[in-house]
Amino acid sequence: MGHANSKRLAIQEAVVMLCNTSEGISIYEIAAELDCDPSTAHRYLKEIEQTHDLIEMERGKYRLEPDAGLAQVSLHPSEALIIYVGLRRFIRHTSQAPKFMISALRKVSFALQRKDLFEALKPSIDLLEAERPASLEHTQVWQTLIDGWRQKRLLRIRYTKWQGSESVEHLVEPYLFEPMAFGDGVYLIAWDRTRNDLRTFKPERIDKVVMLNETFEQRMELQIDVLLRQAWGIWYGKATTRVILRFSPNVARRLQESTYMTSESKELQADGSLLWSVEVHTWMEMLSWIRGWAAEVEVLEPSDLRAQMKTDLEKALQFYRS
Hints:
alpha+beta; SH3 type barrels; four-stranded antiparallel beta sheet; 11 helices
């Protein structure tokens, strides 16, 4: 890499560090992170100051507002590849794509600045736009949710539950959006004034949304990773249930290669089978995943999940008895 490119990337990394601190960061800390001399870090800071509003928190401590890092950046090939993988995952897991999602994908893929990655993404984005476009109604729902989140405005939504046909009205404060760990869902995390609790809503199940004039102040600091630490997907709560599964030797290695939850436990048995356990807020979200392993898995705990699997398998067996 040439000196100019190396310098540009170093300055961009310094901008990221300055945007990611609330207390400020010193020239010596920047130098240590960039593995350069403090005098070099000082020159970088002077260049940053020419194009950004550098904030001095206290003598020798500096920071930038988070949106200062939104300027165009140059990516190392390994960084570009990671973003490419993320975009590929998003494309594969999106069942309805509004036009603004397509536009974002095209812009970001172009910003990767690598012809090979751009050319690999373009046909997939074209196919997503042609085969899985969002309806006008779904696009309007998404846009209103985003406008309410951006402007901190109260929303009135009409929502249909996962297992139900009747719509229920909710008055919500939109806080953030979160993708499902498994599947193609993206959920709105919002404070539900109707239920007086933090809730999640899937845009596909919102029949109607109206943005009201009333604004709100967020009631809590939302720490997504803490909130969803023991959620299989998006459902969370206070109580947890321990799920214990026994996987056959045929799939034990496959299980060992993957991490489904950071809190999971795996114990390889003498016969080659694998005991897998985890604490979750609810096992309902896990059902389809467990069913997908068919005869390669046995539910040991809890008893109600074991009973549910037994019932499901007996019903499924009826299809093959004729």
